[in-house]
Amino acid sequence: MTTATPEALTVPEVMAALRLSRSKLYDLLRSGELSSIKIGRSRRIPADSLATFLRNRIEGNA
Questions:
Q1: 58/62 Cα distance (integer angstroms)
Q2: 3-class DSSP state for residue 47?
Q3: Distance between CA atoms of 47 and 30, rounded to whole angstroms?
């Protein structure tokens, strides 16, 4: 059985992946550094948006 990578992550999943607080994650979303979408009352962060954010941070620190 293979486990598929989710296309969109929940706020708690991204908080855990980045080891950030909820308020810091929402700061990144508000500033536009990290993109998200709303589905009803739920917020999701596309996996490719998270990958782009990390890539930009790595390139910015190089």
A1: 6
A2: helix
A3: 18
Alpha helices in the chain (DSSP H): 11-18, 22-31, 47-61
- DSSP annotation of 40 reads T
CA 14/CA 12 separation, integer angstroms: 5
What pLDDT tens digit does each residue of the chain (62 aa) get?
556 678 999 999 999 999 999 999 999 999 999 999 999 999 999 999 999 999 999 998 86
Contact 34, 27 (CB under 8 A): no
CB atoms under 10 Å from CB of 16, counted, come to 11
What are 12's two structure tokens?
A: 């708690």
Residue 55 makes CB contacts below 8 A (sequence gap 6+) with none
